[in-house]
Amino acid sequence: MPELKIPPESLSALKNFNFLPNEARVRLPVVCALFSRSASSIWRDIKAGRLPAPIKIGPRATAWVVGDLRKALARAEG
Question: Per-residue pLDDT averaged across 15-25, rounded?
Fold first, then answer.
């Protein structure tokens, strides 16, 4: 698998993920890094119901709610 490239603005959110409030939102590069999956795999997992769907934050932008991602991570680990 190719190395994940995380933009600098997403790197901070990833490093501080455990300290973010559940209501915070993160973009796709952070979700890819959290689950160690490519963007296409993330979208496939959403369609299959394995990951939570993002919310629209703009006409061409989506983000995931941190609390929803924490629940998905807990299910994946346990």
Answer: 93
